[in-house]
Write a structure and sequence with these properties.
By secondary structure, the protein is of the alpha/beta class. It has helices at about 30-40, 65-70, 75-95, 110-120, 145-150, 155-165, 170-175, 185-200, 205-215, 225-235, 240-250, and strands at about 5-10, 10-15, 50-55, 100-105, 105-110, 120-125, 130, 165-170, 180. The chain has a six-stranded mixed beta sheet with strand order 1-2-3-4-6-9, with helices on both faces. A three-stranded mixed beta sheet has the order 5-7-8. Helix 1 (about 30-40) links the parallel strand 2 (about 10-15) and strand 3 (about 50-55). Helix 5 (about 145-150) crosses helix 6 and helix 9 runs antiparallel to helix 10 (about 225-235). The protein is globular. The two termini are about 25 Å apart.
Amino acid sequence: MSSLKIERRGACAWVRMSRPEVHNAFDETLIAELTDAFRRLDADPAVRAIVLAGEGKSFSAGADLNWMKRQGAASFESNLDDARRLAALFRTISLCKTPTIARVHGAALGGGMGLASACDICIASTKAQFATSEVRFGIVPAAISPYVVRAIGERQAYRYFQTAERVPAERARELGLVHEVAEPDELDDRVQQIVAALLAGGPLAQAAATDLIRAVAGKPVDDAVVEDTARRIAGLRATAEAKEGLSAFIDKRSPAWAGA
């Protein structure tokens, strides 16, 4: 891969965008390689967590200007195919069964903010800044919108989608986009602490937990939702993973997956 570096740290895979000369901006190659990397890592049972990071001064500054110029001169059909590939990237990350963490430092603009929003967990440096900057280029944050709106809510999206204001890390935490903010020299340690917490959980249960969130979020607590949640817990209680987790708790030991 020419735009990524992938490092395995035990059961955790670190995916680093490696285009520091352009602040890890998106182009066709980075989009394709990120999509492929997340698909492959999510399919690997030995990978229990995926951390997405960026090299250089920025997490990702959004779209590569040369790429945008090429698309501006392309046909509608070419633009549509390109937009579909970009949308598929964010969806691939969002639907990963493996827990995903965005490690954000510096700028996370446009698609960079989309990556942070698509990941399950976002840990940001105090120096990080976010923005949906697309309107300043005469376009809209379409591909990232489902994930950003999910993170910050519809009301806040009305403001930031239209103003394209820079959002400091602390404000991003207040909005719900960022889970925690850490000083730059403490950022990796905090990410590692989150990874350790993830590795203590059952992998099948974690995948079921993210699926559960998608099933109940934004829905009224009606009979169908209550029945669905009852069936989900009943089905999991009989699994080997649940039995191991209960046995480990009773025996006051770590479950088998924690030592993987």
